[in-house]
Amino acid sequence: YHLDFDDAYQYAVAEKHDLTIVSFDHDFDRTERGRKTPKEATL
């Protein structure tokens, strides 16, 4: 997915624990899990 180290680390943890990534970082949009913005996560 061409993520930098900190994004890749967060992605790996989310994948391992079946978590949703909540972030403003558009890099996660290129991944299978995707992401939610903080606003989307609070709805």
TrEMBL record:
* Origin superkingdom: Bacteria
Segments forming a coiled coil: none
Q: Where is the PIN domain?
A: 3-32
| Pfam families attached to this UniProt entry | PIN
Q: What Gene3D superfamilies is this protein classified in?
A: 5'-nuclease
| Protein name as annotated | PIN domain-containing protein
